[in-house]
């Protein structure tokens, strides 16, 4: 056990604010592995995303679609009987299953469709 006054030593993976690097790598491993024929399309997608991610109109359209098509924000359900049976721990379930497609994957799909539409 470490003393609370002793700072936790930083490892090369502890500062995630610098990742991914310019090549898309998370530390010495990872990054992109795509066929050469898709590299140009992936770079174009990245440029489009970077140009739109802070655009208020793009974000407003994305938020609108998430709210009116997907059903965001997903409701929370208090699992009261389960909470009681576990001795008081409060169990809440985020109901991703109620999304239009029944999962979180639609978030990415909506974002990619808006990026493609913007081109």
Automatic annotation (TrEMBL):
<dbReference type="InterPro" id="IPR036052">
    <property type="entry name" value="TrpB-like_PALP_sf"/>
</dbReference>
<dbReference type="InterPro" id="IPR006653">
    <property type="entry name" value="Trp_synth_b_CS"/>
</dbReference>
<dbReference type="GO" id="GO:0005737">
    <property type="term" value="C:cytoplasm"/>
</dbReference>
<dbReference type="GO" id="GO:0004834">
    <property type="term" value="F:tryptophan synthase activity"/>
</dbReference>
<comment type="function">
    <text>The beta subunit is responsible for the synthesis of L-tryptophan from indole and L-serine.</text>
</comment>
<protein>
    <recommendedName>
        <fullName>Tryptophan synthase subunit beta</fullName>
    </recommendedName>
</protein>
<dbReference type="InterPro" id="IPR023026">
    <property type="entry name" value="Trp_synth_beta/beta-like"/>
</dbReference>
<keyword id="KW-0663">Pyridoxal phosphate</keyword>
């Amino acid at each position: 056990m470490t003393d609370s006054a002793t700072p936790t030593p930083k490892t090369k993976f502890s500062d995630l604010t610098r990742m991914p690097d310019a090549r898309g790598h998370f530390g010495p491993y990872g990054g992109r592995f795509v066929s050469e024929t898709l590299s140009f399309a992936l770079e174009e997608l990245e440029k489009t995303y970077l140009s739109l991610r802070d655009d208020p109109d793009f974000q407003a359209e994305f938020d609108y679609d998430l709210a009116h098509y997907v059903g965001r924000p997903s409701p929370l359900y208090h699992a009261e009987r389960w909470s009681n049976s576990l001795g008081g721990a409060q169990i809440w379930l985020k109901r991703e299953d109620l999304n239009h497609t029944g999962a979180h994957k639609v978030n990415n799909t909506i974002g990619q469709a808006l990026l493609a539409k913007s081109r």
